[in-house]
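Field reference: sequence -> structure
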Amino acid sequence: MKQYIELSEEVQQAKAEGKAIVALESTIISHGMPYPQNIEMAREVEQIVRDNGAVPATIAIMDGTIKVGLTAEELELFGQSSDVAKVSRRDLPHIIATKQLGATTVATTMICADLADIKIFVTGGIGGVHRGAETTMDISADLEELAQTDVAVVCAGAKSILDLALTLEYLETKGVPVIGYETEVLPAFYTRTSDHPLNFSTDSVDVIADVLKTKWDLNLKGGAVIANPIPEEYAMDQTYIDGIINQAIKEAEDNQISGKDSTPFLLAKVKELTNGKSLDANIELVKHNTKVGTQIAVCFNNQAQIIPNQF
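Structure field:
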């Protein structure tokens, strides 16, 4: 397995020194926004991790290897490339074996982070159960990964293009805790609130870190969702964005776009219909998630170094 994983020098040093490490995905770079805005955002996000006391590990597939942490040159190459494959669990062996350039989704970033023993991963929003899934069975691989892979995902909830109620039901069935940070309801990506209350909420990153450590100490397999709302000043009006999303979904249906192509299409359409405001909100929520996620990672790392009592 080790022949497929390459840690950057910065990540190797962090491990040697016992520092906290935060995993970052690469799909948001290759498929989430245009160049050079994607690279500028990626660099800023990595710096936020460093400024808050941890080491960033942006994950991507390059030259038949899972890169855990990218150099400045690799990040630039990745951000400029136009032929980057979007890699989920099913695609990972093929992309590695054929030495293609691959961007990791939430699910694949979780897999790769787990292989590198990184427990905290920051992203924008998780995938979920798509609207109409009762007939299409269109459910993101992110949810199944959360059920089986021991990585916590810090996000602004689930993308509001999804069926949020069914997404929460699926996570509950799989035993995945959804912890609201400074919120008692599931945030809906572009908006801070939704109609869906959460079972767990806290205003303390220490509590979140303790819950995660306890979960894995008890050998309860699977990840957790840390739902962190977009900052108030960047949040979009719920009625406005819901109307935009409904229009985007109708256009996707009219164009028979489904499966893994649906999310990129819908997000691009929402960006177009909001005149770019949704992209600005996306960037700000990722930055906020990164700050909170890094604080959780540092607390978790400190707690993980405490040797538990044996019996």
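Note: The CA atoms of residues 217 and 310 lie 12 Å apart.
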